[in-house]
Design a protein that fits this description.
CATH topology of the largest domain in chain B: TIM Barrel
Helix content of chain A: 25-40%
Mean pLDDT of chain A: 95
Low-confidence stretches of chain A: none
Number of domains of chain B: 2
Number of domains of chain A: 2
Strand order of the largest sheet of chain A: 7-8-9-12-13-14-15-16
CATH architecture of the largest domain in chain B: Alpha-Beta Barrel
Distance between the termini of chain A: 33 Å
Oligomer: heterodimer
Number of strands of chain B: 18
GO cellular component, one term (chain B): membrane
Largest sheet of chain B: 8 strands, mixed
Strand content of chain B: 15-25%
GO biological process, one term (chain B): glycosaminoglycan metabolic process
Structural class of chain A: alpha/beta
Number of helices of chain A: 15
CATH superfamily of the largest domain in chain B: Glycosidases
Subcellular location (chain B): Cytoplasmic vesicle, Secretory vesicle, Cortical granule; Lysosome
Distance between the termini of chain B: 35 Å
Number of strands of chain A: 16
CATH topology of the largest domain in chain A: TIM Barrel
Shape of chain A: elongated
EC number (chain B): 3.2.1.52
CATH architecture of the largest domain in chain A: Alpha-Beta Barrel
Largest sheet of chain A: 8 strands, parallel, barrel
Helix content of chain B: 25-40%
Family (chain B): Belongs to the glycosyl hydrolase 20 family.
Structural class of chain B: alpha/beta
Mean pLDDT of chain B: 90
CATH superfamily of the largest domain in chain A: Glycosidases
Radius of gyration of chain B: 26 Å
Shape of chain B: elongated
Radius of gyration of chain A: 24 Å
CATH class of the largest domain in chain A: Alpha Beta
């Protein structure tokens, strides 16, 4: 016998109530993203403390609306009380290894919003290219971009990204990674990088930023003055990872400096010397900062609210690092198990999903210092031709791990929901790849 | 330190004049490339390959080529691709007409629409190349026929002022030559179209160079199949191995048995109608690509059972049927009645001489559980050797297909399990473990083989895995010269468990290009640095 579905009360309005709007402000680490959604006969109500919560609630609402076989839109009677488990839920894109056209970044922001990600970590420059068009130092991109006319982000592009993100409740945290990962800075800023030596002569190649020159710190001061103004978020990511000491060691002036300063042969001390001066510059500009874990590992003196970004999977097991960082009193961000650029055969989303960010030995205060994590899509093998399928829906696994309750871990259930969500993404025009065999009503590009 | 040879004509370069780069001298001494005299750009990974050699534009690398520094200029408004004098093909050859238009677009892109320019004819720096004349030499050019295993894909291309000439036995060679010609045209800093004077003599090392697509694990919309055929043509692939149905879904809309897709496809929309199938076949033909369908049995057939009752073996638990089904039921006459009719249709729908009949991964558990099957085994005297039952089934299918004058390809299990195969059977070696040994066995037994085992491109991993595909040497197996000749080629396989239209193109290309060169170019084209340079150029061109 056929089930008789009661004729639903047609719903005509979703009422959105926001306690403290701040429509023109920027989202921050402290933003409240909680919301309540109430769907019953004749009443659709979304209430939130802030507009950011309202955005989250709207996304959830859009996911609840379905269509039956007759094509009628419907929504079930529902009560939802929701808020994120972690306040910092980010995605890293790398626009140096490969340039990403503006539309690719904007589309990514859209899909981030579908997944309730709220931080866009823009790893904007690195060794291979410098696409950031600086007002203060236009030569940086003129000499350092892959193509200075086409493979750059103009000031207008950057503002577009920041505003597009803001309208989706997403913070934009720019990373200008130093002193390593800076080869592309060299051509546009002569004298900035350390000249490497072969014996007594310069070899012609360059290494990390030269930490012993005053001009270096003048440059950094000016550059970060600009960056601090351009990017409204309180935090800047200052990098500090993978500094190769070989070039510094080869340079006689640097060796002389090391002696002068009494650093001996410990180049970590030179690295710390540099980082500390950089952190001071950035602090004095009224910004907070995030650094990669090496800065912590190498004993650099940092302000207590410096956020440490844990990314290494091997040397120290990352959970141990999380314990150490939080024990030392610093807030921590987890990325180590979420390097989505590391592809492999099969359903690797499950590995990302199973991660438990708080699974380390520590007191509750420590656990509280874990503010969230980031899925990273490094760009060595990624550009606009494969960004979307490689990111989605895999990053969705990280998104749920960071938003939902720690007890939400059932893989079977997650599979069903994520596969369905993936079909929804296709319906929204996102080139999200399949999780496993199957189909969606609307396949990408037709049918 | 490296000598820098700039673009400016130094004295040495003037004297050099003709730049000789043979990849292989046909049937004579083998020399791998001339020493490079241009420095590798610093940070080769990141800088666009500019100021390179003409050969740096080519993929796959031709068997023999000679280029000079002398450049000719092409005017988009005047340049033409035409049938040359003495060609056995002319304006009635739709295949070539279509190719001329297509390659004109590839060469000139948007600029093709530029009308006559205002720069006076005499003011050019370089002499003009006004035409590419295509001359088909065989009396049967092949314009209206289908490519086959024995087709000639050889071509000879001469690019000199004022007219370039592309000679080929058959149209298939002309298609390959047009692709190469289009790769030689490049733009200078001023946007002028240039081509270096050159001479190329080319033919494929292996005759079967295929891509396997799986449209059962995920449906692939027509558009993505057609885009893929274009990409295949850019890489001189000439076989589309269409693994069209399998356990998960049956998208092939059969004329005799419409319920197969009615009940077995993912949905009513996830099907290939007869028109779709014809479109794929013709689109492929125009690019010199054979379409070999695979209807894999007796395993991999779950989706067949939805629309064809009693085709699959009912599995048992003790005395009771469990409700689930196994491979095709080999003991019923109805099975063979069905297959006879079904393969009659397939034989007429797909024009290629070959059909792939599958035969891989047959799980015997269900057969073993079925009392009637057990009874049959006894009667036939097979004992408990179910491989014999499998072979019994396969043999009957092979005979059915033979009766329609089709030849067949099978996966290696069919050979391994000792079915009796006709001598012109092609065995596809796919199991990675010790595949060289399998190649020896197959060719040692006198069968033709194709290699897929090291080229399962669905097995993704982090990093530049194209290098490992490129480094495979198909003939590295113990065997006589006669045996080696039986390895007729290979296939890059993109199984569909994790692949559909959202990620097919980036996952297949340019990784499959590495396989494409391995199957086309000479055996000693193995230098990874050089391949990297050419492949990155080729990739940008494909974009």
């Amino acid at each position: 016998a056929e089930k008789e579905l009661p004729q639903g009360t047609p719903c005509t309005q979703l009422l959105v109530f926001v306690a403290t709007p701040d429509c023109d402000g920027f989202p921050s680490l402290d933003s409240k993203e909680n919301y309540k959604l109430s769907v019953s006969e004749g009443s659709l109500l979304l209430s939130a403390d802030s507009v950011w919560g309202a955005l989250r609630g709207l996304e959830t609402f859009s996911q609840l609306v379905g269509r039956d076989e007759n094509g009628t839109y419907y929504i079930n009677k529902t009560e939802i009380v929701d808020f994120p488990r972690f306040p910092h839920r980010g995605l890293l894109l790398d626009t140096s290894r490969h340039y990403l056209p503006l539309r690719a970044i904007l589309e990514t922001l859209d899909v981030m919003a579908y997944n309730k990600f709220n931080v866009f970590h823009w790893h904007i420059v690195d060794d291979p290219s410098f696409p950031y068009q600086s007002l203060t130092f236009p030569e940086l991109s003129k000499q350092g971009a892959f193509n200075a006319m086409t493979h750059v982000y103009t000031a207008s592009d950057v503002q577009t990204v920041i505003e597009y993100a803001r309208l989706r409740g997403i913070r934009v945290i720019a990373e200008f990674d130093t002193p390593g990962h800076t080869l592309s800075w060299g051509p546009g800023a002569p004298g900035l990088l350390t000249p490497c030596y072969l014996g007594r002569d310069p070899s012609g190649t360059y290494g990390p930023i030269n930490p012993i020159l005053n001009s270096t710190y003048q440059f950094l001061s000016s550059l970060f003055q600009e960056v601090s103004t351009v990017f409204p978020d309180f935090f800047l990511h200052l990098g500090g990872d993978e500094v190769d000491f070989t070039c510094w060691k080869s340079n006689p002036k640097i060796r002389a400096f090391m002696k002068e300063m009494g650093f001996g042969e410990d180049y970590k001390k030179l690295e710390s010397f540099y980082i500390q001066r950089l952190l001071n510059i950035v602090s004095s500009l009224g910004k907070g900062y995030i650094v990669w874990q090496e800065v912590f590992d190498n004993g650099v003196k940092m302000k207590p609210d410096t956020i440490i970004h844990v990314w290494k999977e091997n040397s120290t097991p990352y959970m141990e690092e999380m314990a150490n960082v939080t024990k030392a009193g610093y807030p921590a961000l987890l990325s180590a198990p979420w390097y989505l650029n590391r592809i492999s055969y099969g359903q690797d989303w499950m590995v990302a999903y199973k991660v438990e960010p708080l699974k380390f030995e520590g007191v509750p205060e420590q656990k509280d210092r874990v503010i969230g994590g980031e899925a990273c899509m490094w760009g060595e093998y990624v550009d606009v031709t494969n960004l979307a399928p490689r990111l989605w829906p895999r990053a969705g696994a990280v998104a749920e791990r960071l938003w939902s309750n720690a007890t939400v871990r059932d893989l079977q259930d997650a599979y069903v929901r994520l596969a369905d969500f993936r079909c929804k993404l296709l319906g929204r025009g996102v080139q999200a790849q399949p999780l496993y065999v199957g189909y969606c009503e609307n396949e990408f590009g037709g049918v | 330190s490296r000598r820098a040879v700039g673009r400016a004509m130094g004295l040495a370069a003037l004297l050099l004049g003709l730049f000789f780069v043979p990849a292989v001298l046909v049937s004579t001494s083998l020399r791998h490339g001339a020493p490079r005299t241009e420095p590798e750009p610093e940070g080769a990974e990141w800088e666009p390959a500019s100021g390179g050699l003409p050969k740096d534009l080519l993929w796959p690398l031709p068997q023999w080529l000679r280029t000079s520094r002398r450049q000719l200029q092409l005017a988009p408004g005047r340049f033409q691709l035409v049938h040359g004098p003495g060609s056995s093909a002319g304006p009635a050859c739709a295949l070539l007409q279509d190719a001329f238009r297509r390659y004109y677009e590839y060469v000139f892109g948007q600029s093709g629409r530029r009308k006559r320019g205002r720069r006076p004819l005499g003011a050019r720096a370089e002499p003009e190349l006004s035409q590419l004349q295509v001359v088909i030499e065989s009396r049967e050019p092949g314009c209206h026929s289908y490519p086959h295993l024995g087709s000639s894909e050889a071509y000879h291309l001469t690019v000199t002022e004022p007219v370039a000439i592309l000679k080929a036995d058959e149209v298939w060679g002309a298609l390959r030559g047009l692709e190469t010609f289009s790769q030689l045209v490049h733009e200078d800093d001023y946007g002028s179209f240039l081509i270096n004077e050159s001479e190329i003599d080319d033919f494929p090392r292996f005759a079967h160079r295929g891509i396997l697509l799986d449209t059962s694990r995920h449906y692939l919309p027509l558009k993505s199949i057609l885009t893929n055929l274009d990409a295949m043509a850019f890489n001189k692939f000439n076989v589309l191995h269409w693994h069209i149905v399998d356990d998960q879904s049956f998208p092939y809309q059969s004329i005799y048995f419409p319920q197969l897709s009615d009940k077995g496809a993912y949905s009513y929309n996830h099907i290939y109608t007869p028109t779709d199938v014809h479109l794929v076949i013709e689109y492929a033909r125009l690019r010199g690509i054979r379409v070999i369908p695979e209807f894999d049995t007796p395993g991999h057939t779950q989706s067949w059972g939805k629309g064809q009752k009693d085709l699959l073996t009912p599995c048992y638990s003790g005395e009771q049927p469990t409700g689930s089904f196994g491979p095709v039921n080999p003991i019923l006459n109805t099975t063979y009645d069905f297959m006879t009719k079904f393969f009659k249709e397939i034989s007429s729908v797909f024009p290629d001489a070959y059909i792939h009949l599958g035969g891989d991964e047959v799980n015997f558990d269900c057969w073993k559980s079925n009392p009637e099957v057990k009874e049959f085994m006894k009667k036939q005297g097979f004992g408990i050797d179910y491989a014999k039952l499998e072979s019994y089934y396969i043999q009957k299918i092979l005979d059915i297909v033979s009766s329609y004058n089709k030849r067949y390809m099978v996966w290696q299990e069919v050979f391994d399990n000792k079915a009796q195969l006709k001598p012109d059977t092609v065995v596809q070696v796919w199991m990675e473990n010790n595949y060289a040994h399998e190649l020896s066995s197959v060719t040692g037994a006198g069968f033709t083989a194709i290699l897929a085992a090291p080229w399962y491109l669905d097995y993704i991993s982090y990093g530049q895995d194209w290098k490992k595909y490129y480094s495979v040497e198909p003939l590295n197996f113990p065997g006589s010269e006669k045996q080696k000749k039986l390895l007729i080629g290979g296939e890059a396989c993109l199984w569909g468990e994790f692949v559909d239209a959202t990620n097919l193109t980036p996952r297949l290309w340019p990784r499959a290009s590495a396989v494409g060169e391995r199957l086309w170019s000479s055996r000693n084209v193995t230098n990874l640095q050089d391949a990297y340079t050419r492949l990155t150029n080729h990739r940008c061109r494909m974009l």
